[in-house]
Amino acid sequence: MPQSTLSKNSYITALRAGRVFSVTFEDEAVGAAPAQVEILVRVGSGAGILLGYAFAGGGDFWGALYDSPTLTDDGTTIPVVSRNRVNSIASSGSAFSGPTVSVDGTKLTRIFLNTGNRFNAIDPLDIEAFGWVLSPGDYLVQWENHGGTPTDASLELLWIDL
Question: Domain coordinates of the chain in residue numbers?
Answer without folding.
Answer: 8-161
